[in-house]
């Protein structure tokens, strides 16, 4: 199970990308997602769900996420969230 | 004769840019390389690797996709391989290849992943870029170090820099002399090994005339294709590598008389009073394969 | 009731004339025996002076009263000072309840929002809406629903007496002391005055507002003196930087170029690419770039176009100069290069909007088009196009001549990327139908091309030409697979705008979104 130890971010605010800012949260507080998206009405729920699922798949139960989405496809959202997790867990991966 | 895959154009897409990755396949390049090396800042190696992995896993592309990894002597090279191979790129592009051992190393890693992931053995290929005199001296060894090898390419800027000169524009009269010998030697090695030779990028997007000259020159030298970084160059590259209608017509006639001769078991083959020998037949086959790929020759067979 | 574009249209709409549902592109004819509307008869005798000292004086002189309809042209685009300046003066005089009927709105008209809030303006009839004003008129109920008309439909409505303009305020780049106007000279030169020509001819009272007052007469004359009642000189009618931007450049965006290349190939093979063909290319990035690729094909095949029409952009003027187009018809000049060409090249003709696009005259130029290449915000599986509302249902575009050219052309080609961000541009149903699918023939996207199945001839011509042909449903599926199927927008029942087809029938209605 991955443990978040510090705030971290991944991605950009370029078009087709998403900037994900991830911070650890107290145990039991759950995953709180704050999402900004140009297509909130069409995809807001979907993107929020995808972010939460991606976190849970990495074994994370509590986190605070701010996401600024700029038309990213699902693969990008997943990749950015996973990179943010890795960084917040203290691995730079390089 | 084994039909080679056509690689007239090999286009790079920066690995940390989702907009480029997801659209890289639409422009008609014969081959696309997702790059996690030079186009990615040191601080973003991890995010580019993750993004390229997910792009390969989740998107469909109409052309073959390679991945340019960081060299295995850098801190990222082996991690790139370990992370990206399970996403099954069509090939790994290694920058700055200098020895056969490097290739054998990578080959072993690929073999392991192919076994572990249940991929068809030998399905992931290798393309190597030659960027130094040492690499060029070992080009044939590199080209034959693994059956996975499909092509060697020249990294023009880097090669020129390692010669302590700079890359000039490949103008047919004055330009490109600094790479002239290197380009030719690379083609020799590739041809001896029976794999393809790919030329390096031409970076001035606005100068279409010199691009045409440079592609024409490397085609003359024997290259199979050229790298590029912008989709705008693909059409020009393809146009140069596409045979003219006279060439196609001649090739078609060569193959027709050749096949007739085979059917009639006749020993001597001639066209327009000229002897047709095997190299001419092979050349004709290549011309028609190119024409077919360019969509301007539709006859089957041959 | 459901109209012929498959849209649910109420039997009556509060604040709008009798609802006649769209019945098909050419189904609704002028009423038998109906005559053209026209302005009041007037006489100006020798010795009269048309010059007034201020806009205030002009407002008094033309007898502007509560409830009247006023119009403006949009040839100055985002450089326009006239509309905001005149309406501010009208508001100062305490006049209320006006209908504002410009040929279009642009970003610069956001300043008008307070006048709608104060009741100076209570209705809008136009071709397009943008920015904050578009947002305001989509999300607020003013007196009446906004009426959205095509360029051709607006002239038709004026000539049919449905849109009666009491006073037209004409921004005049050059005006002489007796009211002759042209758009090619002066610091606010905008080129063609194609939309203003209609208002000048049809409004009861015409006020020319100029910052370049010159001796009588001028050459050339676009709007003649006999249509103009009053002339006002002001310091500045428009900012040249907002009116035109040098020479419009062909885009360098690889995706737009790719779409353009495909569109040019569609033109080449669809069957009408022959010596003497006629075309219109929209002003969108991909449409303009189509001209670049088409040029190569025209040079190679030695084919010359007899004419090109529409709003004109610089690259078209280059084709004219190269002899690849024999003559241009220009209703709106989009850049400085085009203004210069209109001024200097006799083969570059100014023409008015009825000549361009009016469906109810004896033949507009759109009828003679072989090809038109246009953009879209989204298209649907029935080939309906939306250029009017954005992904949140907000009005942010213009019908312009889109439906007119689509109806007229033998082959209508729509260019759009398959996705914008993650939003599919080919969907089950567009949010707003602005051009009906029966007039649309080919959809060109960066990932595939779909031909309207009713055009079997086009499909046959395009097959085997190396084009990525697929069905419109396949395009939609590909878009949904990449971007995901979007959840529908939440809309109220309140109608904030009526989209008229060019024949005056109701093509669609725009409802207030629940944001």
Structural description of this entry:
The complex is a heterotrimer of chains A (94), B (302) and C (515). Chain A has 94 residues and is α+β, with helices and mostly antiparallel strands. In chain A, 35% of the residues lie in helices and 24% in strands. A 4-stranded mixed beta sheet of chain A has the order 1-2-4-3. Chain A is globular. The mean pLDDT of chain A is 94. Chain B is globular and about 65 Å long. With 515 residues, chain C is an alpha/beta fold. Chain C folds into 2 domains: 193 residues, Glutaconate Coenzyme A-transferase; 235 residues, Glutaconate Coenzyme A-transferase (3-Layer(aba) Sandwich). A 10-stranded mixed beta sheet of chain C has the order 1-11-9-6-2-3-4-5-26-27, sandwiched between helices. The chains are: A alpha+beta (94), B alpha/beta (302), C alpha/beta (515). At the A-C interface, helix 1 of A face loops of C.
Largest interface: A-B, 22 and 20 residues
Examine the secondary-structure arrangement and name the CATH architecture of chain A.
Answer: 2-Layer Sandwich
Strand content of chain B: 5-15%
Give the assembly state of these chains: heterotrimer
Please give the radius of gyration of chain A in angstroms: 12 Å
Q: What general form of chain A does the structure show?
A: globular
CATH superfamily of the largest domain in chain B: Phosphoenolpyruvate-binding domains
Largest sheet of chain B: 8 strands, parallel, barrel
The average pLDDT score of chain B comes to 92
CATH topology of the largest domain in chain B: TIM Barrel
Shape of chain B: globular
Determine the mean pLDDT of chain A: 94
* Contiguous runs where pLDDT drops below 50 for at least 5 residues of chain A: none
**Which CATH top level class of chain A fits?**
Alpha Beta
Q: Helix tally of chain A?
A: 2
Terminal CA distance of chain A reads 21 Å
